[in-house]
Design a protein that fits this description.
Pfam families: Hydrolase_3
CATH superfamily of the largest domain: HAD superfamily/HAD-like
CATH architecture of the largest domain: 3-Layer(aba) Sandwich
GO molecular function: hydrolase activity
CATH class of the largest domain: Alpha Beta
Strand content: 15-25%
Keywords: Hydrolase
CATH topology of the largest domain: Rossmann fold
Strand order of the largest sheet: 5-4-3-2-1-11-12-13
Distance between the termini: 7 Å
Organism: Paenibacillus chibensis
Number of strands: 13
InterPro entries: HAD-like_sf, HAD-SF_hydro_IIB, HAD_sf
Amino acid sequence: MNFVFDLDGTICFQGKVLNNAIIEALDALAHYGHNIIFASARPIRDLLPVLPTHMHAYPMVGGNGALVANDKHIISKVHFKEEVRNKILSIIQSHRLTYLIDGPWDYAYTGREDHPIRRNVDPEKRANLVPLASLRSTIKIVLLDMPDRKIILDELSMLPVVVHEHGDEGILDISPQGIDKWNGLVKLGIQERSYIAFGNDANDISMFQHALMSVMIGNHKDLACFATERVDADEHLIAKKLMAMCKIG
């Protein structure tokens, strides 16, 4: 069976490396012959620091589907069309917004150093923090600290983009149109109803919709109607759930 895991808020908490209990449970799944896939809003660059080294070659979907990697190589990347990118940058400029803008590997960042999202961005210095003009292509844009959130959402709604709101972090996460986690899984050769998905947020809806079984961690009103099961956001309860699924067919 294929098991697909979101990271933050699902098996990874407060941006820290995976808990030992979670690692042992994932290793047990692999021991029983199951395939493990990680699917995150993080770019591939930022998945690696929270995972143990022996999991770095596992299949990964990053940037909510904009990046796909397998065996330590990025095999697919989707970026904003230049016209759309320029319109988003115009919104950023007119509202004087701060941002995290990801290329396939390097990134541009103008937010506060103490912003909650900053600690998860390239903590091991695998990439380069570069001026925006140096990014050849843009795969994801995160808007930070917005004083006029509704106005900005209205302006973005006129563009061919996918927007996820993360109210707990006060950010808007923007991806190219047609990009979501299910889209990334398809590029890995994953078929509908051939996997069990674990997630906790609205950006997990697409992969829940196509899963054989979907397990929501914690509570999210938009995700709940797509979940077949729910587990509290407790690492030991999650690990116990995974261990119980090791012998699933």
